[in-house]
Design a protein that fits this description.
about 100 residues, alpha+beta, about 15% strand
Length: about 100
């Protein structure tokens, strides 16, 4: 409705419903083989074996939406958004700004 889903999809994101799908293993992944060892970082509050995608080989780490987003853009699990830089489409390095909320 507001176009935000398209922004995430164009950046390579997988937008899942904010419902029980990921919580009960209904994420139909095509990027890995069944039982292949892998890691995901998610802001869903479920992280035990087979919970997100039905794959016992998936290690799921829970983090805030801000950290998950930073890790996705960096493509690395060891990325520190407070200190590490990324290279923009213009070839220049940049750092993420700290998240904030309007009160």
């Amino acid at each position: 409705r507001d176009g935000l889903t398209k922004v995430f999809e164009e950046a390579g994101g997988v937008v899942l419903a904010n419902a029980c799908g990921p919580c009960i293993g209904q994420w139909d992944r095509s990027d890995i083989a069944k039982d292949e060892a892998n890691s995901i970082v998610t802001s869903y509050n479920r992280n035990f074996a087979k919970r997100n995608d039905g794959n016992a080989g998936t290690h799921a780490f829970v983090a805030s939406p801000e950290i998950v987003t930073a890790l996705v853009f960096s493509g690395r699990l060891d990325f520190n958004p407070m200190t590490d830089e990324l290279i923009g489409s213009d070839g220049k390095p940049f750092k993420f700004s700290s998240p904030y909320g309007d009160e």
